[in-house]
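Project standup — Tuesday

K.O.: blocked on the structure for the chain from last sprint. Re-posting the sequence here as requested.
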Amino acid sequence: MTPDLRGGGPIPVRDWDRAVGLISSADEIALACHISPDGDALGSMLALGLALRAAGKRVTASFGERRFRVPRLLGFLPGQELLTEPGDYPAVPELMITFDVPIVDRLGMLAENALKARELIVVDHHPSNTGFGTLNLVDPAAAATAVLAEELLRRLGLPLDRAIATCLYAGLVTDTGSFRHSSTTPGVHLMAARLLATGLNPEEIARELWDRSPFGYLRVLGVVLDRVTLEPEVGEGLVWTFVTRADRVAYGLPYDEVEGIIDVIRRTDEADMAVILKEDDDGAWQVSTRSKGAVDVSRVATALGGGGHTKAAGFTSHLPVEQTMASLRALL
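H.V.: unblocked you, prediction finished:
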């Protein structure tokens, strides 16, 4: 088993050993993370990509969106020269590795590539992971997929440098809420110490992730907060709002810029659960949910076709806002 202080848990040693064998013997490796990547997904993928490239491997990395674009707040991550458009991704990869992907549908345009891969290693920490790989390095006890990515690098004997550590640190602080979530263990802080020892700049990373936004974000935030709704009688209290595509277009705000709004509304004392519905550029509603602990939002999201963690999960809806919320309320 993976030692607890390194952040692992129930992944058998034989699975780690098989993953190391597959990667070590491969000349070309295709990496992928989920669509609308966050810091953990993109950071973990780029970290392994940089390390594998330095070891002499041919590396392709991507995520399956037609509008292929790295979110602005992740533009500081090293290794983006490894990224390729999903249309140029290997159709039948000999070895493919996914990061932070609980279900194959979250690969978007690359889902078919994954299903055709000769070997598919799934690296993830979501409890709702469906085990869709030929080899699944999945540990729900890990605070972030970055924890598992670092463990994989260690087992491969690949060293950390500042660029690799920056990518892993971005993933670690993203999924621990900058070390505020209950997933923050002694092992998490030990990992942070190892990464900081490479000379990365934590202040710069924090500024890029949380302390920057275009002015249009403030205008959209005002609109969205003006329509926020509190329903204290639903479950243990529910607070929710939504942001339309028209809201964003009016102020020139890309979809990925609205991700942090849920962290504003979740502060509501009267509600355990916070929900935000975000209309994407294709007209679908991407629904994010958060809980303070009374509600297992991963069960709610999974029932509605998504997944995630006990306190943070999401799903996609093609129904109008009120119908989507009605479905969610029924589960609560």
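K.O.: great, moving the ticket to review. The longest strand covers residues 273-279. Confidence is low (pLDDT under 50) at residues 1-8.
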